[in-house]
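Example S7 (structure tokens).
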């Protein structure tokens, strides 16, 4: 952030990268849950693997998203006790599968637009 004007530095690649990755984190959390039930740590690691490290959701990102998805009915969980601690195992619901398909369609549209824009901007 630019401390003087309290506005983001749009010339900073980290600004754009972090903005994009936040949205991608939500998408990829739904994506990895399409295949299997996972607990939070494994969701984060699976997203990181699937994106070759491009998207690496952290605890401060993943658990609020999982809470939001659970409250919205997109994800459910079951609790189990491991080494005396509760661990939540998350799975996607039918509503979550539908949401993933909607998100996938929108990301595909954006991808096409980005390709068109990058072609037009090339010298």
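Recovered sequence:
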């Amino acid at each position: 952030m630019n401390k003087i004007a309290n506005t983001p530095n749009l010339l900073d690649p980290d600004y754009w990268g972090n903005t994009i990755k936040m949205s991608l984190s939500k998408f990829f959390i739904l994506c990895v849950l399409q295949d299997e039930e996972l607990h939070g740590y494994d969701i984060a690691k699976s997203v990181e693997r699937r994106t070759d490290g491009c998207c690496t959701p952290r605890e401060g990102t993943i658990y609020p998203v999982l809470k939001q998805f659970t409250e919205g009915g997109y994800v459910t969980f079951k609790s189990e006790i491991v080494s005396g601690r509760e661990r939540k195992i998350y799975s996607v619901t039918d509503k979550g599968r539908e949401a993933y398909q909607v998100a996938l369609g929108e990301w595909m549209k954006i991808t096409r637009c980005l390709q068109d824009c990058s072609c037009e901007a090339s010298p």
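Notes on this example. The mean pLDDT is 89.
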